[in-house]
């Protein structure tokens, strides 16, 4: 794959900044009163650490903190987020794998950390299938195909025609090799059987800045960071990369409607515990996740940036384990065929 370096600039969507400010308030208000409700001698009896394998301030961090705050209300102890970034999330999730299997350390995972990293890295720092115990999904966001505002296309068929004609000079940006923005575009281009220059940035904010500034031509990004820029008219959405239309963007048709029948990409997120965590504790943590996701304030807060929550009837540890296995199997042939790897 060809790539060229770009100088990142910082840009954070306003909805995410608002979420970051409100999460701290929720956590301090919810966790302390709940401690008084905790029965003695039962799990948990002390604070739980939630390892966030990404820097503070991004969409994953905002979601993790919001869910953790609601879980604290149910569990009766604080859920303290610890940001341990580095190596595409690997540093934090290696720490999770090495933590005591007692339920007091849990971790946040994504399609990147628990599927792509197992293929991208020749020597992964942890085994997503065997080193972590799934607890439950905590939300997903649909992916959009975004283009710079002056690209002369209005829908997906026009984009494909333009791409085929100008592929030698076009490029797409992402938050880095293995990020959901990179994976989504790779899946789309693989089905189109087209190779285009990839420009990896150091994060989603500089990648979005690059698209708005015309450094790249298109980008595949989740709604959590795209909606604010779409509303401001700084970029255009020409397709959804999920099977269904996106709420709030009824005029943006799925790419599947134009023939990409296999394409269905979502930025999913889940919580995990170290291998060997007792089943009773896994059940308790899953129950706290389900109760957190049923909170109407959390649903409204995350729905504002396009995050949806899974069906509680199927949101089990076993279901998340199957999601991880399925995504690894789906991504492996694409990444190997494109020779995308990180030493």
UniProtKB/TrEMBL annotation:
InterPro entries reported in the protein's UniProt record = BUG, Bug_dom1
Per its record, how is this protein called by name? Tripartite-type tricarboxylate transporter receptor subunit TctC
Recorded hits in Pfam families, A to Z, give: TctC
User: At the top level of its lineage, which domain of life is listed?
Assistant: Bacteria
Task: Could you list this entry's UniProt keywords, alphabetically sorted.
Answer: Receptor, Signal
Question: Which PANTHER family does this one have?
Answer: BLR1237 PROTEIN, TRICARBOXYLATE-BINDING PROTEIN
What is the phylogenetic placement of the source species in the record? Bacteria, Pseudomonadati, Pseudomonadota, Betaproteobacteria, Burkholderiales
List where this protein forms a coiled coil: none
Q: Which organism is it from?
A: Pigmentiphaga litoralis
- Signal peptide residues on this chain, from the entry's feature table: 1-36
Q: Which family does it belong to?
A: Belongs to the UPF0065 (bug) family.
* Alphabetized SUPFAM superfamilies for the sequence: Periplasmic binding protein-like II
Gene3D superfamilies xrefs: Bordetella uptake gene, domain 1, Periplasmic binding protein-like II
